Amino acid sequence: MVDGAKNSVLKLMSAALLAEGTTVLHNIPDISDVRYMVKVLEGLGCEAQIDGGSVTITVPAEISWNADIDSVRQFRASVCVLGPLTARCHHAVVALPGGDAIGSRPLDMHQSGLEKMGAVTRIEHGCVVAEVEALHGAEISLDFPSVGATENILMAAVLAEGETVLDNAAREPEIVDLCHMLKQMGARIEGEGSNTITVNGVPKLNPVEHRVVGDRIVAGTWAYAAAMTRGDITVGGIDPVHLHLVLEKLKLAGATVETYPTGFRVIQERRATAVDYQTLPFPGFPTDLQPLAIALCTVSEGMSVITENIFESRFRFVDELTRMGADATIDGHHVVIRGREQLSYAPVWSSDIRAGAGLVFAGLCADGVTQVNDVHHIDRGYPGFVENLCRLGAQVERVSGDE
Ligand code: UD1
Q1: Which of 106, 215, 253, 371 is the most core-located residue (most Cβ within 10 A)?
Q2: What domains appear along the chain, each with residue ranges and CATH number?
Q3: Residue 39 assigned as binding residue
Q4: Could you give the count of Cα atoms lying within 13 Å of 47 in the half-sphere of its Cβ?
Q5: Among all residues, which ones are annotated catalytic?
């Protein structure tokens, strides 16, 4: 059973800033990024408390607009407070984030969207700054359907005066989840899930209770675990429609896939067949599952070409797989892989959340004992990762207290 999506809950926690009062989110994952986000909200003057699978956030009438705080630098998603702070306080200072080593992640589309709505923005002293007297609606066309820019623009537009039409918007299920919560709060939004979203601003929003959408990336990760280890894994807690293309790719690789209303089962009986991939915005193949796809290709029969179209440095972990004997050649944003029957153990280092999971699965396909280092990356996105693997019968042990 997977929990709520990391890439949704962090934005929903940020959306809570838009309404004075107490917002409660259910189905939250037990991951370090949620704990970082609690610190960010506390730094802005809110009270936030995690209790089991829920987080309760109490937002005062006056919140701080200054998010130049250490907790913000810890992870990329904290930039999603920019839109809400600009909307609520008319002034925002947000420390430029760190996060995964998967490529440069500029904020130009976030900034130009807010500027179209009347804000003045700049990068100054390691922070992004936005100032505005009053946000107004605007026609905004994104150069690329950026998830983060779509979210920040939406969270500013809901309290802006007039109509905002956002074209070439991102269509990810996490954006739809955010829109559902904003609508419950009283926002007037149409078109979520399509590439044009229309928002009519309202003067005030109300706090709500909301259940976070299931994590399709975590679910997809377990699907790849089954395919790599010739296993049989059933995953619940997500809408399989959100993984349509991913599950189709696994069928092409030779897996039997059954879908249910809230989950799926992947059975891989023989060695997987090589499949080509290219990452694209939703509903294309998710870049976040690209490391898992690559890991599977390294042990599949035949040759695969994987093309990464979203983040330029996301092949960094391929070198680690090569240390395990994988036959992989990087050429720009393509990687060509000739599958091997088995990998060989080696010490390896994870560079981001998903690469970390891919390396652990590669270790399960290698002889001997593979040591994966820097596993704090995995803690950022996968609740109970080692426990779940052990329940599935893998021999995996956590040997450092990185948590
Ligand atoms: C989110 C997800 C991440 C996922 C990604 C793409 C979260 C916390 N993270 O990241 O897991 O891999 O979507 O599905 O939800 N870009 C610009 N200018 C901008 C904004 C983005 O050039 O103003 C570029 C980025 O550098 C990147 C591409 O657009 O190359 C996609 O970025 P974006 O969709 O914004 O990803 P994130 O929101 O950062």
Answers
A1: 215
A2: 6-198 (3.65.10.10), 216-391 (3.65.10.10)
A3: no
A4: 7
A5: 100
